[in-house]
Amino acid sequence: MPAREGTYGLLAEFDTPSDLVRAAQQARHDGWRRMDCYTPYPVEEAAEAIGFHRNKVPLVTLIGGLMGLVAMFTFETWVSVLAYPLNIAGRPLYSWPAFIVPAYEWTILWAGLSAGFGMIALNGLPSLYHPLFNAPNFRDGATTDKFFLCLEALDPKFDLVETRAYLATLSPTSVVEVEY
Amino acid sequence: MATSEIKPKDMTIDPATGEYRVIAPGQTFKSVTEKIAGIVLTPNTPLGWFAFFAVAGSGATVLLVAVTWLFLKGVGIWAITQPVAWGFAIINFVWWIGIGHAGTLISAILLLFKQSWRNSISRFAEAMTIFAVVCAGMFPLIHIGRPWLGYWMLPLPFSMNVWPQFRSPLEWDVFAVSTYATISVVFWYIGMIPDFGTFRDRSQSKIGQYFYGIVSLGWRGSVRHWMRYETASLLLAGLATPLVLSVHTVISFDFAVAVLPGWHTTIFPPYFVAGAIYSGFAMVLTLAIPLRKFYHLEKLVTERHIDNMGKVMLATGFIVAYGYGMEAFMAWYSASHWEAFMFWNRMRGPMGWAYWVLVTCNLAIPLTTLWVRKLRTNIAFMFVLSIIVNTGMWFERFVIIVTSLYRDFLPSSWGTYRATKWDYLVFIGTLGLFTTLFLLFVRLLPMIPMNEIRMILPQAKIKPKEPKATAGGGD
Lengths: 180, 475
Prior knowledge:
Strand order of the largest sheet of chain A: 2-3-1-4
Shape of chain B: globular
Helix content of chain A: 40-55%
Number of strands of chain A: 4
Largest sheet of chain A: 4 strands, antiparallel
Number of helices of chain B: 16
Radius of gyration of chain A: 25 Å
Oligomer: heterodimer
Number of domains of chain A: 2
Strand content of chain B: under 5%
Structural class of chain A: alpha+beta
Number of strands of chain B: 0
Order of helices and strands of chain B: HHHHHHHHHHHHHHHH
Shape of chain A: rod-shaped
Distance between the termini of chain A: 13 Å
Distance between the termini of chain B: 48 Å
Largest interface: A-B, 78 and 78 residues
Helix content of chain B: 55-70%
Number of helices of chain A: 6
């Protein structure tokens, strides 16, 4: 667990997404790993630049969907064959084609819920507090029109003075220190 | 194609294609954010909003009165009887849920097809979906007569050990509509999380900061979060697409599975889905045109959107026309006496006027005029047309339900259908409820997805100068 005191990291602000992507590529090239970009809309290139290519949302969705499918189909079979068999004009009790529709709906239901809530959980949300919210320029711009690169103190290369000097070489509009 | 007609100096037209631009030129990340957030975060609610709200709220009150009276007296206050046992309630159910479908189509199917023009209209189309499903979902519940037993439709372990019948389309409906409502709400909410983050950061009031802070779940715009968010959005779109097609298909099964002339046709599933999208786009236009005028959103919801929606309506309208044609053809080609009589009666019987209203509103007016680009980009015309199509689609459901039922197989069982004032009041009431919910949405929530608009601005284009970074891990 990170210590809840001291410096969280150094936050560099950029005006355009291209500047951010170039800076992030450079930082990763120079060996930085504990870092993140913050943008007001999805910037795929920035995620690529910090080496984030895959995520687990599709897997969670697949598992959720399959669970919904199996659960509903099994349930319908159990109800129609064992729990409450109804003789409708002599049709077979295990009339599986009729069970497809609710099972299909539940596949979508549970896959969709897994995708939505799985995404939130994998993102570690809800977390109403985050050290970055302490930076005033972050609160002003991160969800409007500014682009941020944060080099985190947990990275072994991190040093308050040297890292600040390093970030200045990436030509940001400002660099601020973020406290826990 | 129509490049010659346009003025060369018109900045709202893209010179490369001759089409209207999706977003008017000169917008920045900040201007877009300020425009959309300003609508909600201002402490001054426009007077016009209150005026609309008063009218819509009165409508919603009418609904409350009508439903209360219904619960006190029973469904006998409606005009439903034998042989027309499905009246306004089911007509309105199918109409409302069909309207909802365009919202899902815009948010899901057009996302999969990478139609970025959808970004401006997707959020309020999704809101429209949810409020339409709210109105739709009410009707089967109040139509069952004893609404306090509505939970019998759900497979719950009762003390009596009775389970629902899973072979019935009416039971499938329970699953289709409840899944549709749930997934629509999840999709809508997930889409709004980043915009809630913007509201949290821009809100000047303590209440606003708390409220939007909580509903944004602490969104901070990390690109790792964004990538999972984008994946989840795409997956939800991929799931909502087959879902939306299945919902109206299942609803059409309610009819098509019955052995009733006029209902028992295989064309129903595609014809219902196309009709749903047709009426839904009409409703999006009905909402979008006053909204962009009232809130001055002409730069974000441009003529291009109106034009494109007109094109979608033209296409789906022709599928609907094919459905009507096929119904008539099969009535003749099947050589079934009952089928032929039903169709003759539908066109020429005592309620034949309803059929011709539907043909005029759904085919004759829109399918001739929507070809013309000048008319498609004429805002006033499109507004009137959208109301005509909505009316026509309501009459389509009226025709399918009433004219198939009121002439039973035996002339001794023939009847008629004349809606009572309570039928009309419930219908007007749901219009009021829908509008009330929509007005609250416009006042309190981001009606245009700010993050998606930022994405399609020209400034968002990355100009790479460095080679790509080396491959690395993900989660």
